Amino acid sequence: MTKKTRPIRTKRRTVRDSQVEMTQLVLPNDTNQLGNLLGGRLMEWMDIAAAISAQRHSNRVCVTAAVDGLVFHQPIRLGEVVTLRASVNRAFGTSMEVGVSVIAENQLTGARKTANTAYLTFVAVDDHLLPVAVDPIIPLTPEQKRRFGEALRRRTLRLRPLRREK
Ligand SMILES: CC(C)(COP(=O)(O)OP(=O)(O)OC[C@H]1O[C@@H](n2cnc3c(N)ncnc32)[C@H](O)[C@@H]1OP(=O)(O)O)[C@@H](O)C(=O)NCCC(=O)NCCS
Question: What is the pTM of this model?
Answer without folding.
Answer: 0.92
